[in-house]
Amino acid sequence: MPHRRKADKLGELGDWLTQVLFGWPAAQRAIAPCWPRHWDVTEELSMLYCAWKTAYLWEGASANDACEYLDRWLPNALERIEIRLRPCGQGHQPDGPRRDDSTVVALVQEELRWL
């Protein structure tokens, strides 16, 4: 994927995190603000975003899809992300209002566009 398109997709993913995923306190605790700099975490979040879109936006979705997302995909992805970010996760995990990582996302987007 060209870097410009990657930057656009990263922005879309960041918006989804802010608007949807960070509604879950466990997600805010598991996902450190430096997530856009960790491509393995970005891949994991992309998979989770696709699973969410399938469960909640796909016309053919059923209640079973939402149940599977909430019971299987979300908790397991958050657990893997938390493990991957442990080396970076010292002291920057908020317990307050919903977090907005758009500044960090914008910085990484700009870096990608320069490549």
Give a brief rundown of this model.
This is DUF4913 domain-containing protein. The chain is mostly helical and 115 residues long.
Number of E strands = 0
Q: Approximately what portion of the residues adopt beta-strand conformation? A: under 5%
Integer average pLDDT: 90
Helix run count: 5
Number of spatially distinct domains? 1
General form? globular
Biggest sheet, open or closed, and with what strands and sense? none
Order of helices and strands: HHHHH
Distance between the termini: 12 Å
Q: Level of helix content?
A: 55-70%
Assembly classification: single chain
Poorly predicted runs of 5 or more residues: none
Helix/sheet category: mainly alpha
Structure report:
It comes from Nonomuraea salmonea. This is DUF4913 domain-containing protein. The structure is a single chain. Helix content is 67%, strand content 0%. The chain has 115 residues and is mostly helical. The protein has one domain. Helix 1 packs antiparallel against helix 5 (102-114) and helix 3 (39-56) runs antiparallel to helix 4 (63-85). It is globular and about 45 Å long.
Layout of secondary structure:
Blueprint: H1 3-19, H2 25-30, H3 39-56, H4 63-85, H5 102-114
Please supply descriptive tags for the structure shown above.
mainly alpha, 5 helices, about 120 residues, DUF4913 domain-containing protein
